[in-house]
Amino acid sequence: METAKKTTGAAKRTAGTAGKSAGTAAKRTAGAAKKAAGTAKKTAGKAAGKAASGRAPAVAPARPPKNESRTALVRRARRIDRELAEVYPYAHPELDFENPFQLLVATVLSAQTTDLRVNQTTPALFARYPTPEDLAAADPEEVEEILRPTGFFRAKTKSVIGLSKGLRDDFGGEVPGRLEDLVKLPGVGRKTAFVVLGNAFGRPGITVDTHFGRLVRRWKWTEETDPDKVEAAVGGLFPKSDWTMLSHHVIFHGRRICHARRPACGACPIAPLCPAYGEGETDPEKAKKLLKYEKGGFPGQRLKPPQAYLDAGGVPAPPLGAAVARPEAEAASGGERAGGEAPAPEAG
Hints:
single chain, mainly alpha, 15 helices
């Protein structure tokens, strides 16, 4: 009997202890929940305050792992290209041309100047010298005078007359559709050749200009700086059929949003995917003011742009001598250079 009483007492004490423990745990859980709710409320309040002031919460940059696998790199690169394709469905070469000869000459002239300036200059050049034969026989001084607005006009005159003679003498006055033939012409390197092959002949090629090289390094697609090595590294991440449009997407983004000196990070549609997010202006309203061309409501670089560009709200560039909506120096500050190889500096 005495043993039964002791057992009953022990059971009561155990139950009481368990009840106290449960009560303490419940109180702690409730306290933690209350604290978490308070923190969430503060966070929501801060976010609401930023939204009310027109400032969105910061975007967390997508930092690729240090030991990112090849497969992960390919997937990340292709996702960025898909996003850019949606942002720039009208991406195109920003040099005006009507045939392969005009594109070849325009691309050579685009070195160290804007595509806009080239587009404003070539109408007079092609009106006077419409064929390779015509330009090959031109008076250099007359050509220099036409090309003066593009800068380095003496070196460029020598190149375009020289390549025209090459076309006339070696290719029957026709622009060849092979890389190995194009790079034999004066002033024509791989960048220029790929611009011509991809846009005049429909043959895939990657154009590694200043924009392309800058962006693919920001995105950690490659650390290479040599254009040929950049071309090889990036080309290996995509199907060959994607190369030409990939070049347009990246270059368009570099000219409009991801600038060299002050990227518009706060207005960038691929900010969540960018390892370099935060290098530029992250405030959405301030970043919006940095946008160029159709994204910023300004004229484009082509006097005769594709219809798709016009449908998207793009505005044609004004002809040479007409009033421009913004200074040429501002456009040049973005490094608006196409695929032309840089000529030798002018003497005198």
